[in-house]
């Protein structure tokens, strides 16, 4: 034990003076006395200065100046020996300082953070103390931009935690999810002089534990999606993406495959080049097909050793992860749709899932097909219609589950895009499609369902020959007229767009169509809609009226 001097006792005694001004002056004198004096620091700790300083720091009745000076002294005490740090931690300095960060005063916050930084960079401080309260990390994130000092101290705390315990990093990067400011701050953090992104690259090496590889890949994925790392950066293309593809292989545990597939889907969702690279990496598409081979009941699983503990929920998550990845792979690039997806038999697999008793599987199957049909060439669309079959398509259009119905309408809308495709599909299946549209528009469905259906009708009206299926159907024209006068603007917009396509001047037979629709009263309705309060509806009606004036 350090020698206890009379001077040290005097400093501690002044902390208990009834006069607040004397207490403040005593703390200031203590601050000056401990600078560079480890013996004095140890003496004050032994004499019980720390609990009293923490008490004064936490009292709302203490002046901000006093609370700030207490934080400064505690920071000086922390700069002593490792034994000093242990004593401070044992006195619960960390929760007291974290609580101090809730104060609005910036100078006090900076003093608390400076002390916390000193405590946390010590090897004897358990870093998990930073994560005891789940609100702490979000609050630290919110303080990053308060000043140059708050940014410096917080990033130093994070850097040390990164170095000591890699799994705690995931907490921070969940917070960095779609947050550019936080991600830009973290990507510049240095750990022993090395950028954090490079630390993660090393964590993704094949000889590292799978949990570590996945954690690092997730961190880099979030930073990339938030804009802190470019999608063409080598750490993404050559390290993160291949690591996530490896996680999708059948050698991995079920949970690892789910996490890998979902993270990979999120990483490449907006970037065509990443989708293209992924589609040709390690037979990814064929690996995903295995995701659907797990049976729907645990009792039917033969690989008991690996999956006995997994429930129906885990298997469902596996399928959903595959759906997400298929949707990301096929969302933007026609070559990918044709080469990983079309040739792999995936379309037949997805079509078979639309016949499942599970609404969730039906929704996901249709959703994936809908994405594949988006801006696809005719070969892909024909293959989807062939594999799904018209009977199943129309069963789905009468599905009692609204989500299934909406996704099926989305699929049909994507199939009926570009005129040659519209005309080709309507020449083969026009009668059934018009019947389905009629049933939905007459039925008790939500505004969203009817809006999507009217949009399909507008696509049909854009075909060269397909539009005649509407023009020769007076009952359908009356329905369009009804929805042009509906109280919901979304339905009015969709119906007016349909009429605009029917009367467009530059197309053969436009005059005859205009005359017929004028005789049915559509011009009067369009004229009224040019006075609509909604600017979009007003503009659309004016555009349609111009076709009559041209």
Automatic annotation (TrEMBL):
Keywords, alphabetical: Cytoplasm, Nucleus, Repeat
The reply on keyword Nucleotidyltransferase is: no
Matching PROSITE patterns: ARM_REPEAT
Xref: Pfam families = Arm
Coiled-coil ranges from the UniProt annotation: none
Q: Name one GO cellular component term.
A: GID complex
Q: Which domain of life is it from?
A: Eukaryota
Q: What is its main location?
A: cytoplasm
What ranges cover the ARM repeats?
48-84, 388-430
Q: Which GO terms describe its biological process?
A: animal organ development; proteasome-mediated ubiquitin-dependent protein catabolic process
Q: Does the record bear Translocase in its keywords?
A: no
Instruction: Spell out the subcellular localization from the entry.
Output: Cytoplasm; Nucleus
Q: Any idea what this protein is called?
A: Armadillo repeat-containing protein 8
Annotated source species: Sinocyclocheilus anshuiensis
Gene name linked to the record: LOC107663904
């Amino acid at each position: 034990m350090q020698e206890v001097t009379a001077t040290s006792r005097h400093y501690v005694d002044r902390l208990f003076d009834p006069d607040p001004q004397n207490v403040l002056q005593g703390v200031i004198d203590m601050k000056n006395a401990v600078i560079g004096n480890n013996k004095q620091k140890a003496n004050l700790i032994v004499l019980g200065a720390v609990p009293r300083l923490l008490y004064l720091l936490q009292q709302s009745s203490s002046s901000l100046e006093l609370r700030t000076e207490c934080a400064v002294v505690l920071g000086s005490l922390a700069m002593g020996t490792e034994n000093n740090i242990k004593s401070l931690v044992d006195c619960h300095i960390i929760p007291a300082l974290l609580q101090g960060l809730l104060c609005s005063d910036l100078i006090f916050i900076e003093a608390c953070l400076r002390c916390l930084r000193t405590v946390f960079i010590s090897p004897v401080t358990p870093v998990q103390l930073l994560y005891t309260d789940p609100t702490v990390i979000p609050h630290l994130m919110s303080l990053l931009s308060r000043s140059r000092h708050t940014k410096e101290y917080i990033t130093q705390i994070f850097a040390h935690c990164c170095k000591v315990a890699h799994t705690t990093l995931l907490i921070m990067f969940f917070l960095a999810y779609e947050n550019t400011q936080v991600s830009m701050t973290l990507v510049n953090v240095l750990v022993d002089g090395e950028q954090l992104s490079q630390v993660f690259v090393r964590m993704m090496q094949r000889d590292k534990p799978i949990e570590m590889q996945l954690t690092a890949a997730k961190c880099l994925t979030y930073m990339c999606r938030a804009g802190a790392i470019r999608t063409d950066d080598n750490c993404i293309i050559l390290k993160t993406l291949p690591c996530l593809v490896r996680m999708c292989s059948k050698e991995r545990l079920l949970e690892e495959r789910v996490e890998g597939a979902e993270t990979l889907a999120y990483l490449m969702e907006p970037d065509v080049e990443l989708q293209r690279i992924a589609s040709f990496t390690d037979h990814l598409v064929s690996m995903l097909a295995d995701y659907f081979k797990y049976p729907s009941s645990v009792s039917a699983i033969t690989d008991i050793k690996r999956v006995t503990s997994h429930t129906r929920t885990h298997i469902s998550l596996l399928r959903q992860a595959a759906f997400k990845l298929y949707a990301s792979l096929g969302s933007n690039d026609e070559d990918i749709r044709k080469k990983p997806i079309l040739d792999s038999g995936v379309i037949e697999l997805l079509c078979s899932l639309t016949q499942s008793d599970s609404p969730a599987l039906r929704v996901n199957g249709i959703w994936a097909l809908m994405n594949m049909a988006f801006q696809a060439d005719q070969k892909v669309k024909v293959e989807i219609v062939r594999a799904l079959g018209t009977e199943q398509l129309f069963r789905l259009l009468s599905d009692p589950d609204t989500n299934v119905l909406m996704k099926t309408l989305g699929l049909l809308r994507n199939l009926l895009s570009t005129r040659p495709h519209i005309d080709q599909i309507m020449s083969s299946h026009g009668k059934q499609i018009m019947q389905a549209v009629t049933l939905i528009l007459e039925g008790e469905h939500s505004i969203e369902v009817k809006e999507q259906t009217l949009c399909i009708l507008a696509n049909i009206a854009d075909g060269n020959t397909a539009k005649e299926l509407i023009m020769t159907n007076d009952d359908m024209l009356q329905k369009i007229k009804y929805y042009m006068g509906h109280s919901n603007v979304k339905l009015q917009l969709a119906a007016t767009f349909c009429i605009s396509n029917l009367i467009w001047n530059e197309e053969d037979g436009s005059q005859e169509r205009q005359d017929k629709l004028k005789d049915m009263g559509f011009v009067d309705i369009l004229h009224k809609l040019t006075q609509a309060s909604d600017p979009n509806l007003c503009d659309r009606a004016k555009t349609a009226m111009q076709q009559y004036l041209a």
